[in-house]
Every structure is written in C-alpha cells, then in structure tokens.
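Table S2 (continued). Query chain:
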Amino acid sequence: MSDSDLPGADQGKTGSVKRRSRAALTSLSSILSKVIGRFGLEHRMKEHAFMSMWTEIVDQPFKDLSRPLFLDSEGNLVVAVRDGAVAQELSFHRGALLKKLAPFAHAVSLKLTGIRFDLKHFKEPLSSDLDPKFALSLGRSPSQPKPSDSELSAIELSEDDFNELEKLKLNLATSAEQGDCDSATSQRIAKLYERELRMRLWREEKGFQSCTKCGYVDSRLYGASGQCRLCHVLALISPVS
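Corresponding output:
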C-alpha cells in the first residue's frame, strides 16, 4: 500500500494546499495594503502641497482672511473665509484664482473644477503662525520647531520621492509649453512640492507623529484621535465619512 492509499493522505495534501493558499492571500493582502497606504499618503501629501499654494496666489489682506480647507468629491477647492464680504470679494476673482491654481493641480494629478467659500469653519491663524509666548497666553500649544533651509537642503530624497518630483516637473513643463502657466510659476510650484517632500522626511527624522487616518506626518495633530489638519477638517465637516 502506498502512502497515497493511507487514510487521511489526501486530506493532508488538501490541508497543505489550503495553508499555502491562505499564506499567499495574506502576503498579497499585505502588499496591497502597503501599496494602497502609500497611494493614500502620497495623495494627502499632494493635497497639503496644493493647499500651500493658496497663500502664494492671493494678496493681502486675503492671506489672513481666508484658508483653504480641502478638495471636495467634485473637485471644488473649499476655502474658509472670515465673513460674507471676504467671500464676495474673492468671488469676483474666482476665475483668475482658478487659472493660477489649475497648473499645480494638474501637475500633482488632483482634480480641480471650481472654488467654493465656507463661512462656518474659518479660524484665526494657527499656533504655528504665532509667537510661542503669545500662543501660550491664548491657551494654544506653542509652535513645533522648524527646520532651517540648510537642514532641508541636506535631506536626501528617496528614489520614490525623487521620481515623483521629476514627474511633477515634467507635467509643469508641459503646462508651460501649452501656455497654462509661465516658467517662473512652474519653478515656484516645483520648489514648494520639493520642500513638502523634504519637510515630511525631516519630521519623520525628528519623531513627529503621523496622522492616524492617512499617515501624513504633520507638525501638529488635531482632535482626540490625532489627525492631520485636512483629515481633521473633513471629520468636522463630514463626521459620517
């Protein structure tokens, strides 16, 4: 009688196949989770970099009277404003603002279709914009330390970050050739995004905590669950999502 004729022999083989299948599925699931996680983090990084463009394209006093919140599902940039007068004034310039923002949105593969203004969620400058002693006097946490330009320049980008930056520069060059933005704007956008990449690495080196939802390493986390500014705002406005 061969081993294959013994009772339970087929069952043993089947169990082994099942164990290998489960192991393969677990491994595949782990890989997919990492890929999806990185994609989500990269998307959030692009959003953060994109939001930083707002103060580059608006003039005073609107730099202090408006703050970009997030991009909604329809591609509208939602901007918090102090009051209706600010919203009305910015509405007059909506077309020009969109034209300035569009090349950057395209370069970082973000959908931008419009701008809408929010009157409910505007807040005064964050603690990071205030003098530490003044922030404490207001009952706010003082700002986190910030890197010098030399510290940021010394940080080496990973291969993935470098490739992402080169892809962005290529997209910007195409936009410039098509007349969507000038070369000076393209260079400024590229520098802002490169700074965002280096800031993330610097924060990781300094042990800054990451957002519990998207994994973005921010200079300050919000709420009891510890979320980055964008995730926190989205949770406040759409608590069900």
